[in-house]
């Protein structure tokens, strides 16, 4: 990996600036398949406030949340900064009863590798188009 500008780090993960792409998260140590990479607490936004959230800069960083997906969750830590990939190296699971999202390595991840998730999650809609150009 070429040297990237680290914006912030917790020792295992770092937010970096990717030229021509913007911010992203990289691993600062290796992870094995199945490892818990991050357990990110979330701020839950009630359904009646989601439309307002979408009109703000935060509207690009939330997860659909709740049984009916009508609430939103803003992941703290690095959770709202993982970039999208249709071939991600992380999967994530909502722990709604604990107000956290857990991110797990789908395969071995090398130190310096960008950490990505599929914004459509992994399942029936994993390959669905996104409303932006994927870089």
Please tell me about this protein's structure.
This protein is mainly beta. It has a single domain, classed as SET domain (Beta-clip-like, Beta Complex), CATH 2.170.270.10. 5% of the residues lie in helices and 40% in strands. It has one helix at residues 47-53; strands at 5-9, 13-18, 22-27, 36-45, 62-65, 71-75, 83-84, 90-95, 100-105, 114-117. The chain has a five-stranded mixed beta sheet with strand order 1-2-3-10-7, with no helix packed on it. Strand 2 and strand 3 form a beta hairpin. The longest helix has 7 residues, at 47-53.
What key attributes describe this structure?
about 140 residues, about 40% strand, globular, 1 helix, Beta-clip-like, mainly beta, 10 strands, about 5% helix, five-stranded mixed sheet
Q: What number is the mean pLDDT?
A: 85
Distance between the termini: 18 Å
Low-confidence stretches: 128-132
Taking the sheet with the most strands, its summary is: 5 strands, mixed
User: What integer value in Å does the Rg equal?
Assistant: 15 Å
CATH homologous superfamily heading: SET domain
Q: Tell me the CATH architecture.
A: Beta Complex
The fraction of residues in strands falls at: 35-45%
CATH class: Mainly Beta
Q: How many helical stretches? A: 1
